Amino acid sequence: MLQAIACYYCNGIGTCKRLLVNFTRSHSRYSMPHLIHAPGPATGLLGLSVARRFSASPIKFLTDMHDEYGPIVHLRFGPQHLILAFAPEAIQEVLVTQNKSFPKQQQNLRAVRQIDGNGLITTEGDFWLRQRRLVQKGFSTDHLERYADITVRRTQQLLDRWPTVGEVEICAEMTCLTLETIAEMMFEVDMAADARELAEQVEYLSERLVVEFGSLVPLPDWLPIESKRRKRRALRALHEMIRRVVSNRRRSGEDRGDMLSMLLQAVDTEGDGGKMTDAQVCDEITTLFVAGYDTTASGLAWTWYLLAQHPDIAEAARCEAKEVLGDCPASLADFERLPTIRQIVLESLRLYPPAWLLMLREANCDTELLGFRVPRKSWIYLVPWVTQRSPLWFADPLRFDPARFATHRLAEIPAHAYFPFGAGPHRCIGERLALLEMTLIVAMMSRSCRFLLSAGQGPVEVEPHTAIRPRGGLRLRVEKIWGVASGWV
Ligand code: HEM
Question: How far does residue 173's CA lie from ligand 1's centre (Å)?
């Protein structure tokens, strides 16, 4: 309880314990002095020991904070307040009800903007709203039908490449699949070589992003050191490639029916009646490409990891896939007819949310969350990994139990306790596409293959990259049980 009423200035280190509540009430510059801070650890004057624990293992640190202090936690690094908002009610306040009071944190935005420019992820307000309306057109049912066909064709090509019995590194395989799929959805042409180079640059830039997010004092990009040189090269290569694709298409004037043609032609009929400039199209295409493949690949890799350990659930998926798809390729229409597989995907995104930590938010005014004080400029952490694994909101939370998502049980999940795609106005624009892709891929691959953890696969550790992934990859043994050409084997 001492933590809950820790002083605004000493943050419970104890230097003014005797003055505690009164001191806080009378001396705080905070405009709601009747409120107290949420519970949390004493972080010392600069919070260096806590910062070290956080950088060493962010997932473990955030989980420990939840386990020790509960649904909302307050920390302090020098003058900076940090709020870990694990409770669904707090998540709803930050992302939905009071979302205008909690914009994305500027330092994070600046770092992401170097990659995505002014795309949907890095913009807010009227500019974002106009772009969101325009980009949304690319996710209509007509487009989804085409995306489903691309997914199915690419998945079949991957299955045809695999041996009848053998071993695969499933993270690399899923990344390759989602990469080729998103590249074809975005740019139509088969630009496998370009897509790989794009992915290499994005991979490096994402790694740097994680390092930069985690460092207390980010180094300026102009420094003549190797990591910064490499970063500048990667940014140049990524942006030149995208600019080239966009300007070639603009020049050719062709409508290839892909996302790029749609963005070049889209008219803001509900707003100013204008179109996007080429620079805006470049930023949105980069944003969609970067946001679209790594997350989906991560979700798929963890799904296979879970299914390899739960043969009964894998068998249920296989039976459903065989019954619904028969010997035919999957299609958009099958999505609604695969409820067991959809539940598997949703449960896997609960236990292993690719976006394990949302982009930092920052309070732009003095406010409160769950009755605790949130001073202006506090940073707010929203952590699907922790909330979605908490016994406070999920029974037997670490058990892989896809039936939680059966329609008649959905009401058991509190609103916003499950948010792998975020919530509110900035909720993932690709959610329907990602769920469609994952469901069709799991259906087709379950029909064709059995997966087991490889004998040589050691314990799997989670690496908190921009999307979580198994550290060092994940080796699975694959046994093909069906092939389009040969029928059942
Ligand atoms: C399993 C796959 C995916 C997951 C888990 C995921 C997760 C998320 C999350 C959590 C957010 C909100 C971030 C925040 O508020 O801080 C988000 C936003 C976004 N996602 Fe996804 N995503 C996935 C797939 C995709 C795909 C396939 C695309 C596009 C092709 C995409 C494009 C975007 C964009 C553009 C935004 C920003 C939306 C806005 O602010 O208006 N995502 N995603």
Answer: 21
* Ligand 1 center to 428 CA (angstroms): 4
Rounded to the nearest whole angstrom, what is the distance from the C-alpha of residue 467 to the centroid of ligand 1? 11
Nearest in space to 285 (alpha carbons), one of 424, 134, 177? 134
Inter-CA distances, 423 with 65, 95, 302, Å: 23, 6, 22
| Angle separating helix axes 278-309 and 106-116, nearest 10 degrees | 100
Asked if the model's pLDDT at residue 125 lies above 60, the reply is: yes
| pLDDT over 70 percentage in the chain | 90
How far is residue 393's CA from residue 390's CA, in Å, rounded to a whole number?
6
Q: How confident is the model at residue 214 (pLDDT cuts 50, 70, 90)?
A: low
189 falls in which pLDDT band (50, 70, 90)? low
**Atom number of ligand 1 nearest to Cα 131:** 41
How far is ligand 1, taken at its centre, from the CA of residue 136, in Å?
12
Question: pLDDT band for position 24 (50/70/90)?
Answer: very low
* C-alpha separations of 225 from 207, 219, 232 in Å: 16, 10, 11
**Confidence check: pLDDT of 387 > 90:** yes
The residue nearest atom 31 of ligand 1, judged by CA position, is 430
**Fold annotation for 111-488:** Cytochrome p450 (1.10.630)
Q: Is the pLDDT of residue 235 over 70?
A: yes
Domain positions in the chain are 111-488
How far is residue 390's CA from residue 90's CA, in Å, rounded to a whole number? 15
Q: Which of 428, 440, 441 to mutate to test the pocket of ligand 1 (most atoms within 8 A of CB)?
A: 428
Q: In the structure, which protein residues have their CB atom closer than 6 angstroms to any atom of ligand 1?
A: 120-121, 132, 287-288, 291-292, 295-296, 299, 354-355, 358-359, 420-422, 426, 428-430, 433-434
For residues 264-269, give the mean pLDDT: 88
CA of 44 to the centre of ligand 1 (A): 36
C-alpha to C-alpha distance for 289 and 182, rounded to whole angstroms: 7
Residue 21 pLDDT more than 70? no
